[in-house]
Amino acid sequence: QLQASGGGLVQVGGSLSVSCAASGGTFRDYVMGWFRQAPGKEREFVASISRGGGSTAYSDSAKGRFTIYRDNAKNTVYLQMHGLRPEDTALYYCAADRFLRNIWSSSSDYEYWGQGTLVTVSS
Prior knowledge:
The chain is an all-beta fold.
């Protein structure tokens, strides 16, 4: 089970951190990803992180502004976001998969999903 939290309203240029707490499995066995879905748009990849945290991947939009990291002792993955833009407004979902071999995987490759947390960037 994945429980995302930390979304909220932030002004353009601001920062926000969202987190996703996992339960029910061995967290360190799972590749973790963040995806987002804006109204009327398809779900898109934001960032992902390997099981040990040593490898990360980012979308072009997230690169340089967002940081994904995980704390395997706390069974939690985080997405720290800076320089937020109105186009970052979306529901942010965390995802997990035990068998992924590539952190550059599409949403369809992930087995488990959280419920989403809403990030709204106001101008």
